[in-house]
């Protein structure tokens, strides 16, 4: 029953994502897989956790248009859909809470195990190799530079390791943080090998060059 329910929810969620991006369907599915992995180790209620993970960014594509924070609109969309399809009514409030609290930078703190796992999984997808790829996708979406992307890594991504709620997420975050750290150090070393804002020095010429002037 659960598998069929989750597949139906996924099919509905897919209708909200029409193009690739930092917060696209691939991101949602990665976060769902991470949520399941951590949730199985932590003893989470999967009938709360998986729907919350699938719906957590469902309103991202329309956030800029509406001005409504995607976690609030996503929670509303999820609650409406789940009630309409007759999903377990006792679990819907916990699903809504997890969606509303998954965004670590804004909003209330997650209070339930499932909400904490979803928040952790969402942060983990901003770390490691995937986090690096998403950072430069984001830079492209915003017309930003390599230096701007590096700034985003320092300002946000390198701080995520210390914000995990669960033991399972902390274990995964350790390796992803190390990879992120090594990458940004290598990138900064390469960028720092020359001043990108200065024109190249003209070549030094030897001897009398006056006879070559026109």
From TrEMBL:
Residues 24-127 form the HD domain. Residues 190-214 are annotated as: Disordered. Residues 205-214 have a biased composition (Polar residues). SMART domains: HDc. Pfam families: HD. NCBIfam families: HDIG. PANTHER family: HD_PDEASE DOMAIN-CONTAINING PROTEIN, SUPERFAMILY HYDROLASE, PUTATIVE (AFU_ORTHOLOGUE AFUA_1G03035)-RELATED. This is HD domain-containing protein.
């Amino acid at each position: 029953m659960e598998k069929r329910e989750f597949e139906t929810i996924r099919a509905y969620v897919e209708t909200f994502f029409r193009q690739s991006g930092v917060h696209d369907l691939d991101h949602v599915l990665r976060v769902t897989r991470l949520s399941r992995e951590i949730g199985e180790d932590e003893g989470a209620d999967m009938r709360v956790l998986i729907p919350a993970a699938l719906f957590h960014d469902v309103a991202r594509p329309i956030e800029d248009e509406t001005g409504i924070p995607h976690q609030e609109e996503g929670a509303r969309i999820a609650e409406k859909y789940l009630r309409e399809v007759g999903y377990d009514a006792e679990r819907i409030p916990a699903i809504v809470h997890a969606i509303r609290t998954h965004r670590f930078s804004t909003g209330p703190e997650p209070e339930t195990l499932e909400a904490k796992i979803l928040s952790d999984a969402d942060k983990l997808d901003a770390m490691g190799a995937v986090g690096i790829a998403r950072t430069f996708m984001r830079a492209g979406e915003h017309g930003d530079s390599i230096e701007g992307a590096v700034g985003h890594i320092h300002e946000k991504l390198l701080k995520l390791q210390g914000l995990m709620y669960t033991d399972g997420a902390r274990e995964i975050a350790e390796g992803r943080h190390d990879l992120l750290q090594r990458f940004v150090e290598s990138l900064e070393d390469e960028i720092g090998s020359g001043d990108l804002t200065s024109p190249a020095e003209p070549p030094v010429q030897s001897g009398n060059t006056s006879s070559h002037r026109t």
